[in-house]
Amino acid sequence: MATRTESDSGPDNHTTTTTTITNNPTQVATPPTYHLSFNQNHTCFSVGLQNGFRVFDTDPFKPSFRRELDTHGGIGLVAMLYRCNLFCLVGGGPDPIYPSNKVMIWDDHVSRCIGELSFRSEVRNVKLRRDMIVVVLNQKIFVYNFLDLKLLLQIETVLNPNGLCEISQNSSPMVLVSLGLQKGQIRVENFGSKKSKFVMAHDSRVVCMSLTQDGGRLATASSKGTLIRVFNTLDGTLLQEVWSSVS
Description:
247 residues; Methylamine Dehydrogenase, Chain H; 2 domains
């Protein structure tokens, strides 16, 4: 696989951001947006579009660059690795550029895909670290070594249509948090101790989760939408509950 390189300004081959004007001079044609996600340190975010993908800086907010791929089709998922030249792309929309069951590894230095991962079902999410690629399916999660794409771990989960999964960025080894094997349950995978811990976080379905950069704290919310719980990922201890008012 190509060597990853990083810079403060994004990939090397920048292009000027442009807009396409329709026949009506008062209207600007905006391609449909299929995906939006931040990079690992929230310095920029990527947008999957009907005709490629774009990257924007967050502070100050401004367009960074855009890629309109030679083969027309939608991008349903874009995963960035900080500001380096490697992206993971998944097709999306009514006319996807790639199959929805494949993760394409795009090298922006050579402007082409240099690898791919194929699965038997639709890819719901992709999480990246400098050393690992995590692919989330409807009821499975696959963890790969980034350098050689060797499969390191396979995890079974309950039905996960939203692709819920979080990984630590600052800690080494990695901490991964996913849905468990039953409703309301979460699973914490510690790659250092090589131990799995299951925690009953809620009585109803978990629909949202967020992990601190060091992997030490996890916040979860359920489909009821009335309660946020914060857990210690090391031992599964409940640290805090935050209630929301519901009329």
